[in-house]
Structures are given as C-alpha cells and as structure tokens.
C-alpha cells in the first residue's frame, strides 16, 4: 500500500531561549542558554527554564485568566505555526483540522493551586474554583487551542511522558494518512515548572541539577553532570499531505520519513538501552534509510548519570563506528528538559540544518564522560556538515515509553 507523503509546512514555538524558530535557532548556534532561578512553593529557589512569550498576542485577558498556562503555550504555538505556514484560522476547513498535542502530565498545577488557595480559608471548598474541572481534564491544552481557533475537528492530547512531543507528530501523520483529517496542528507543550510536585518528585530521586551558574547546570554527556533542569515550553507544527501543500504553494521544511514507538516493560524510571535501540533501529528501517544515511541524531539525554549512558549504548548499538557523516547533538543543554514539549522543540532546533548544513552543539561539556564518547558528537561549537538529508529525533519517557521520529529533506 502506498502511503501519503506527509510534510511539515509551519513551526510555532516558545522556549526559554526564544519565542520563534529564528530566535531559538540563532541562540542554539550562538551558545545562548537561558535558565533562571525560580521560587518554587514550599521548596524555595530552584533552577528552571522559563518562557517569556506574550499570551495576549493571541488571547484576551479573560481567556488567559480562565485557561491554563499549558493552554496559553499551545495557543501561542498554534497561531504562530499557522502564520508561519501562510494560513489564518479562518482559512482552515474547521471540521477537517485535527489538533494533536503531546503532554507529560496535566492538571497538577491547577489542583495544587486550588488546594493552596483553600488552605487560607480552613480548606472550605466553597472557595474552590468552578473552572477547576475544565482546567484539569487531560484534553485541556488541545481543547483550549480548538476553542481559540474555532476548530471543530478532533482535538485531544497524547499522554506519553517525555516521549510525547514526537508522539504528537507521529499521531498527526497517521491521522492524515488515514484520511481522518486534511490538516493537522501537532507537537507538544509543557507547563511543568508551575507544579511543585514535579520538583519535589525529582528532588526525592536526587535527580535535580545544581550549579552555581544556572546556564551551565544542564550538562548532558559531561562527566560532572548531576541531573535535570525542569523547563516549560512548546512547539507545534502544521502537517499536510504533500499534494495539498504543493497545491497551495506552501514552503516545506521537511518530510516525515519514519517513526517507531515501543515500550521497555522493565522499570518505572530506569531506561532500557536494548528497547531504545530497537525503537531507533525500527524507525530507520521504516524510513527506507540506512543508519549511515542519518546525518543528525538529536539525543534525548537529560543529563542524568545513568540515562545518558544508556541512550549512548542504544545509539552505539545501531550506528556503531561506521557512520562518519552522522552528527550527534543535544538541545537540553540550552533550555533544560521541557518534558512533553522536549522532542518537538528539539526537532525544531535542527530543522534549519536542511538549509544551512550547520549542526548546533551540545554545550556545557567541559570533560566528556568516556561512557558517552560517541563518534560524531558535536560539542560546545557548531559544526558544518557536508550534507544534511535526514534528522533522527529521540524522545524517551518514564514507564519505559520510547519514540523515534525521522524527518528527511524534502525532494519532489
């Protein structure tokens, strides 16, 4: 069966170090990280990646007040992606537009805030907000986007831990190929920094990064790495079938080439490099490419001691020593770990490499951990590549969910 070719025609994002693809990419090439110290309820100041976008650019004040931070991030990214694709919300066929948003978790922020609020009134629930339920349902971010755009097609979230950003694009690709929708807005969002619970949970695991310089705290592959920097953010894409994109003269960033999703089934938290390798290997096989055809691997590596090593083991198992044109980088060293948005943001940071053939680096690597020493690692400075025809994006999550997405240069 011949599958429809699916292409990326628009990108909208907000990250701690940029509110557009151009700004984000410029900072990745210039080595600009942006991590702050943020006051966390009950816990004091902790490192976090904080976005600085204007929610009122696409929402009214009441909508921001009634809705959620994740919803505002999603609306901002969706509207910016549509504009980048040369479209307006009014130009869409509303019932044939799908919205598929990956998330790590949702609702914790609002529930924590409500409990904190009623604690000041003797826990009297008459002070509980009547907006709590629509704010906390799992489909909220996609639902808020659909309300803002007036889109009446399928709109829901995909809970896939930190693999979710990739899953948003993968699911959209499948829905377009099935003919369920004609246009998709997809990717991932995260509001994680606004819940103290996630900080407390990672702190109890001794997994939070610390460094005297916040911008040097996220250190994937470095021998002295000591944990995760939690961040918020979002990246949403517009996906279309190739014939539709060509018909309207859309610019095309790249084409979805292959993907795979699998599960470790071995541990709540600890990754399984064997299952990760299977996921990567299967995605490459489905794309019709060879490992040597992949020119950029964006790693998931979160700067935890074991997690980075195990992902490197998985990559080594698939790519070995025989892929001299394969370059390997990491985006979390700049912005921390944006959870459900991570994979979508990390793909965005590499997409311009199809045009300029420059690979952004992993920064903050003072002494490379020998266990992470992979051929092709791009460290601390950008590298010019001979060619960039295929990008492989890894995103892995708790409870053993793995996702790999491959995007290739568009050629007719």
List keywords for this structure.
412 residues; alpha/beta; Peroxisomal Thiolase, Chain A, domain 1; 2 domains; three-stranded mixed beta sheet; 14 helices; 15 strands; 33% helix
Q: Can you describe this structure?
A:
This protein is an alpha/beta fold and 412 residues long. The chain has two domains: 6-247, Peroxisomal Thiolase, Chain A, domain 1; 257-408, Peroxisomal Thiolase, Chain A, domain 1, CATH 3.40.47. It has 14 helices and 15 strands. It has helices spanning 21-30, 61-66, 69-84, 108-119, 132-136, 140-149, 164-178, 196-204, 242-247, 273-287, 305-319, 332-335, 342-350, 353-356, and strands at residues 6-14, 36-40, 44-49, 97-103, 155-159, 183-190, 230-231, 233-241, 254-263, 296-298, 327-329, 358-359, 383-384, 390-397, 401-408. β10 (296-298), α11 and β11 form a beta-alpha-beta unit. The chain starts with 5 loop residues before the first strand and ends with a strand.
Distance between the termini: 20 Å
Helix content: 25-40%
Name of the CATH first level of the largest domain = Alpha Beta
Number of domains: 2
Radius of gyration: 20 Å
- Number of helical segments? 14
Strand content: 15-25%
Could you tell me the number of beta strands?
A: 15
Q: Pairing-aware structural class of the strands and helices?
A: alpha/beta
Shape: globular
Give the mean pLDDT.
Answer: 97
The succession of helices and strands, N to C, reads EHEEHHEHHHEHEHEEHEHEHEHHHEEEE
CATH topology tier name of the largest domain = Peroxisomal Thiolase, Chain A, domain 1
CATH architecture verdict of the largest domain: 3-Layer(aba) Sandwich
Strand sequence of the main sheet, in spatial order? 5-4-6-8-1-9-15-14-10-11
> What can be said about the biggest beta sheet?
10 strands, mixed
CATH homology superfamily name of the largest domain: Thiolase/Chalcone synthase
Unreliable parts:
none
């Amino acid at each position: 069966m011949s599958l429809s070719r699916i292409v990326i025609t628009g990108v909208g994002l907000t990250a701690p170090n940029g509110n557009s693809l151009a700004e984000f990419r410029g900072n990745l090439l210039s080595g600009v990280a942006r991590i702050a110290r943020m006051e966390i309820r009950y816990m004091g100041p902790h490192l976090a990646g904080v976005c600085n976008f204007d929610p009122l650019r696409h929402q009214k004040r009441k909508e921001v007040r009634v809705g959620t931070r994740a919803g505002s991030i999603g609306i901002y990214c969706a509207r910016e992606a549509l504009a980048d694709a040369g479209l307006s919300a009014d130009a869409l066929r509303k019932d044939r537009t799908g919205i598929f948003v990956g998330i790590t978790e949702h609702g914790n922020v609002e529930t924590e805030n409500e409990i904190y609020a009623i604690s000041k009134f003797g826990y009297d629930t008459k002070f509980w907000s009547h907006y709590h339920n629509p704010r906390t349902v799992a489909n909220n971010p996609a639902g808020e986007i659909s309300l803002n755009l007036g889109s009446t097609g399928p709109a829901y979230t995909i809970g896939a831990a930190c693999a979710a950003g990739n899953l948003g694009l993968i699911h959209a690709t499948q829905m377009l190929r099935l003919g369920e929708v004609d246009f998709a807005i997809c990717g991932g969002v995260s509001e994680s920094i606004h819940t103290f619970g996630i900080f407390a949970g990672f702190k109890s695991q001794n997994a939070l990064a610390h460094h005297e310089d916040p911008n040097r705290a996220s250190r994937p592959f470095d021998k002295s790495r000591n944990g995760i920097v939690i961040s918020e953010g979002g990246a949403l894409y517009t996906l279309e079938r190739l014939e539709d994109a060509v018909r309207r003269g859309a610019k095309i960033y790249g084409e979805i080439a292959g993907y795979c999703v699998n599960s470790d089934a071995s541990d709540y938290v600890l990754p399984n490099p064997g299952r990760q390798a299977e996921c990567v290997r299967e995605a490459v096989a489905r794309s019709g490419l060879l490992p040597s055809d992949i020119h950029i691997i964006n790693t998931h590596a979160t700067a935890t001691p074991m997690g980075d090593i195990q992902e490197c083991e998985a990559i080594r198992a698939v790519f070995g020593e025989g892929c001299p044109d394969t370059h390997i980088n990491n985006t979390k060293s700049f912005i921390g770990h944006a959870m459900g948005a991570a994979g979508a943001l990390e793909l965005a940071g590499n997409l311009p490499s199809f045009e300029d053939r420059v690979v952004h680096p992993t920064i903050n690597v003072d002494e490379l951990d020998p266990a992470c020493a992979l051929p092709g690692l791009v460290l601390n400075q950008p590298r010019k590549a001979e060619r960039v025809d295929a990008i492989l994006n890894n995103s892995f999550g708790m409870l053993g969910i793995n996702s790999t997405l491959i995007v290739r240069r568009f050629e007719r």
